[in-house]
Design goal:
The complex is a heterodimer.
Chain A: H1 22-25, H2 38-60, H3 68-88, H4 123-141, H5 146-165
Helix pairs in contact in A: 2-3, 2-4, 3-5, 4-5
Chain B: H1 6-28, H2 33-59, H3 80-101, H4 107-128
Helix pairs in contact in B: 1-2, 1-3, 3-4
The chains are: A mainly alpha, B mainly alpha.
Chain lengths: 168, 143
Amino acid sequence: MLAVSAAALPLLLGAAGCRSSDAFAGPDPLAGPPPLGHDVLTLQAVIAAEENMIDLYRTASSGDPGTSRARLLRSLLAQHEQHLVQLKARLVPGGSGGPGGSGGKGFPPGSGGSGGSSPRVSTARLRAAERASAADLVRRLVTMPPALAQLFASIAASDATHVTALGG
Amino acid sequence: MTTTGAVPALQAALAAENAAIFGYGAAGAHLTGSSRAAAEQDWTAHNRARDTLAAMISARGATPAAAHAFYQLPFRVHNASSAARLAAHLEDGVTRAYLGLVAVGDQRLRRFGAMATLAAAQRAASWRGSTQAFPGLSPPSTP
């Protein structure tokens, strides 16, 4: 059986905008930063989506902390926070994407992402967000490097289990 | 970047499916009611998946690896609780195996592997009664 270890996932995204010929010519100091590669852009988009999901869960779990629903939401939120840590770890700081890689994209924390004006986030809305996230990750992983594709698939699988945990 | 070969990854998934088919047989003997019905449903799903994988391997000119006559269970199964734990354990193995397919170069195989990963993780969570942050991956450490 093939062994898969998250710890062994490579960090290959920092130079995604460089081509092999660039190594001989050297960077043009007047050309500005190289364009971000597909992998980096995809990872940034996934990170932004994960941040939105976390924001949604924080909003949803902000009230009635003693209920079983709140306990479930906190548990799922913690798993999304783990997803975010692993995704961000795969962006090399100092690249053109900047530290964390998702600056400027997505909603700022506390804005509620896709509907911050309502403090009440329904379970159905969380289910829909989880389902959409899993589908998006599966769609994106087909063009990613193998190790990152496996991370995306695992996170998508986690999101799919969240749908069930939320009663879907 | 290195992609995994399609046939070895398919064979690994087939091996995991064969182990699951055997294991569900052992688990089902200790289950009753809705749990037993769920086990039978999952067993049927694994049989279908085995046939699909065998056909995919054959289509690539290789011979599907045969199932073993017997599989060593990871722990003693003697009641409904341990049977459910075994089912979750089997699904974890299937999840890991399908993640191997996600690393192949063929995009259709990747999508197939990803969808099978999701299904196995959902079955594992159902048997375990809880979710995991990274189904199929070893406990991650930040690189």
